[in-house]
Amino acid sequence: MLAALISVAFFHVSTRHLTLKIGTGDDDFRNGSKLDLKVVTRSGALVPIEIARGQRFPDRTTQTIGVDLPRDLEIDSIEHLELRYYNRHRDFMEDDKWRFNSLEVKATVLGGTQTLYDNPHVDQFFQSDTTWSTGTLATFRRSGGFLIQVNDEIGRPQPNTDLFLNNVNIGHTNSAGQFTTLTPITSASQLIARSRIHEQDYYRSHHSDDSTQNWNYRVYQTNVRIDNSGTAIPEFSVAGDRVNVVVKKRQALFGLNLLYCIQMDEHPSDNAKWINLVMGVSQFLYNATDGQFFVDHVVFTKQSQNWDDSDGRIVSDNGYRANVPNQTGGFLGQNIAGTCMMLSRANDSPTLSHEFGHYGLDVRDEYSDDDGNLKCTLTLDTAGSPFQMNQPKASCMMWSQWNAGKICSSISSNPHRDGTRQGSQSCWDKLVSRWNRPGSAELITPSARGTVLGTITMGGTPVGLNYMMPTISFEGTSRPGILPSGNLRVVNSSGSAEAGAKVWMQENGPGGHNFYIGTTDSGGNITVEGSHWLDTFSAQSMDGLRLGSVANTRTLASTLVVMGPTTEAVAQVRPDKGKGKIIIPQNRGLLPIPVEARLVPSLEFTVEKNQKLEKIDRAVLELDGGRAGNGGKVMPNADGTWTIRFGTYPEANGTVYVFGTAKDGQPAFGTCAITLATLKGGRPREVFGPAGQIGLSLFTQKTQAAKILIAETSMVSGADSQGNPSHAYRILSDEPSVLEGCPLEFRVPISRRGPRPRLTLLIGDKEGKNLKPVAKAVDHRGLNLITAKGAGEGTYVVQE
């Protein structure tokens, strides 16, 4: 390399001298620009010294520059050095820029030489007047405290690195990768450094927490080595008051950024439930991935705010079976637009972790509802094996998150089992295939490590939430009168508990939503969340229509009484001097209103003539996903029927609720769930109906546009003679011919626990009568899916 020597001398004789070797990269320092050196000591800064002196630093060269210091300056009192670049070279087209690549600084004291600073990887690109600093020099003698220096494996300082000392976040490093603390640090301390090297931008909005962009995960290099015993060891060295930390790419940590949307309202006192849930997810994933994944940031919204942008959608049904509908995604690759985790408010942390396996890691289920012997891995049932189920090394969490907490791999001692929906590729191998930046951070699989780790521990105990503590926030405002979660008990007229009763909640006031909140337990109890003062509840028992309602007081501890299989009652709890008072009307009849959906230019519902019905008070269209529909226009007809019109919806999924009054003064109630989709020839379409997912597509030769109306109907009994549940849909179209031979897919929610049942598909007339099997229907076992060619308009019934 070309070397130049520039000496800058003082007028007095000095025994202290600095020698600077300044490396220039692929953009030269031009003559005319200015470069000042500032020496900053314990007592202050010396007068800056101009060291370029009009010289040019050519591309890819090193300049050696000598600087004399005052004779009374102690070298170990120099805290740091600064270089100040001044752009003074002006061209007609472009001003000067300089690529500052490396710096070595040595001091000569009484004939001896001491290295103050040596960094071959400065890589500072000056484009305007800018100051660069060495950071605190290793030779600086401090008057107290400890200086932590964080570098990567090739010696580059790591700015903005998060530091955790003995489970406490003490701050982050400065631009030179340094941090000062007065807390004593010894080799026995637990010092963890987490240096961010990547933030993945994200196409979904409302993911910009702690950033200037939407992001879905971050990648960190850490100083935590996890050995083959599963022990997490923070590595650093202490020399006097200097602490040196090195972060490495083989010690990477992936931090997730998730948006969970709660369908219902939520009281602040219930935040602790969600916080504990997320902390559990972070710990579960950290352990499952051998200390390489955790939950970094989480935002919870309520009342379905930001529903479409959310990663996890928490529905009101306490018995909803968690799933990832349509295609899975993968945070480490392209995440599929519209994919989400569909979750129940009653799900636990392992379940959320399992669903993230689908949503974030792009892995499939490794169990079968139809075959209990299908497990991954093969050693789960081997007695005495370290990989036996419920042991710390058992896998795979995609088989059972409660009995196997690890992710399966291709390691020979406990390999992934082929034959599951995951296929021949292990979950670990799939995960790694999604990560495309191994040069900056490596994912270490059990196969690469050569062993399967058990529970990850630090200091002899499972790793707690220290350097993987999620940042959790809650957004959104509540409706007036929001209440903490509480209990509602459903009993029959004799006072016996109604186990398995279905319960709905109607929010009070204008714009209030109606939510199905699930079924009662064996004691007739159900936990109610997101309720408000004077909300009302309805319950339906398993063996007959038993509708009633109870208004929510400021203290939710009410009993909803539902009457005999053929009679119904309404019970209301009204505020009475601050206490709840149950009032059961003398007449126990609640009049059910049959509601039929019609496909016309606007979305209409017809209520048939009923001699007992006095009037219809109101009708509300509740769109799926917590989105509020509008109130319907109720129009009495001359023939004694009513028409309820909601206007034009090109596409909609939801439920209409009709509230009326019988001639005896008692309440009347009706409901009908619908899906409306606009289809065009040759374009497959998936729509999410009120009781499941229904796929419709047209043959390519059918080019006309058509509107398809799918209405969940109660015209067909909810169960057959053996008590097997069924799901009935009236499917109509403004172009009925498109339903002849149209491929249909029905993906229904399973309404009971245990093995997934076989499905059959029937079709009847529009009233749900004259049912007969649909020809050549195919039951896709384990997927809750049955497919067939359409047989025209009518009522389709999926029978479990």
Descriptive report:
It contains four helices and 56 strands. Strands 38, 41, 42, 45, 46, 49, 50, 52, 53 and 56 form a ten-stranded mixed β-sheet that branches. With 800 residues, it is mainly beta. It is elongated, with a radius of gyration of 35 Å.
Summarize the structure.
The chain is mainly beta and 800 residues long. The strands form twelve sheets. Strands 38, 41, 42, 45, 46, 49, 50, 52, 53 and 56 form a ten-stranded mixed β-sheet that branches.
Structural class of the helix and strand makeup? mainly beta
Radius of gyration: 35 Å
Number of strands: 56
Range of helix content: under 10%
Overall number of structural domains: 4
Shape: elongated
Tally of helical runs? 4
The largest β sheet comes out as: 10 strands, mixed
Mean pLDDT: 81
Pick out the low-confidence regions: 1-15, 543-548, 563-589, 688-692, 698-703, 715-723
Percent of residues in β-strands:
35-45%
Between the first and last Cα atoms, what is the distance in angstroms? 80 Å
Search tags:
Immunoglobulin-like, 4 domains, mainly beta, Lipoxygenase-1, ten-stranded mixed beta sheet, single chain, 800 residues, nine-stranded mixed beta sheet, disordered N terminus, 5% helix, 56 strands
Present the secondary structure layout.
Layout: E1 3-8, E2 16-24, E3 34-41, E4 44-45, E5 49-50, E6 62-69, E7 78-86, E8 98-109, E9 112-119, E10 124-126, E11 130-133, E12 146-151, E13 162-165, E14 168-172, E15 178-181, E16 191-201, E17 215-222, E18 224-226, E19 232-234, E20 237-239, E21 242-246, E22 248-262, H1 271-288, E23 293-301, E24 312-315, E25 341-344, H2 349-359, H3 427-434, H4 446-449, E26 457-458, E27 461-462, E28 471-475, E29 486-492, E30 502-506, E31 514-519, E32 525-528, E33 536-540, E34 549-551, E35 557-562, E36 572-576, E37 579-583, E38 591-592, E39 595-599, E40 603-607, E41 613-623, E42 628-631, E43 633-636, E44 642-645, E45 652-662, E46 667-679, E47 685-689, E48 692-696, E49 706-712, E50 726-733, E51 740-747, E52 760-764, E53 772-773, E54 778-780, E55 785-791, E56 794-799
Parallel strand pairs: 1-6, 12-21, 22-23, 22-24, 23-28, 24-25, 29-35, 38-46
Antiparallel strand pairs: 2-6, 2-8, 3-4, 3-5, 3-7, 7-11, 8-9, 8-10, 12-15, 13-14, 13-16, 16-17, 17-22, 18-19, 20-21, 26-27, 29-32, 30-31, 30-33, 33-34, 36-37, 39-40, 40-44, 41-42, 41-45, 43-44, 45-46, 46-49, 47-48, 48-51, 49-50, 50-56, 51-55, 52-53, 52-56, 54-55
Helix pairs in contact: 1-2
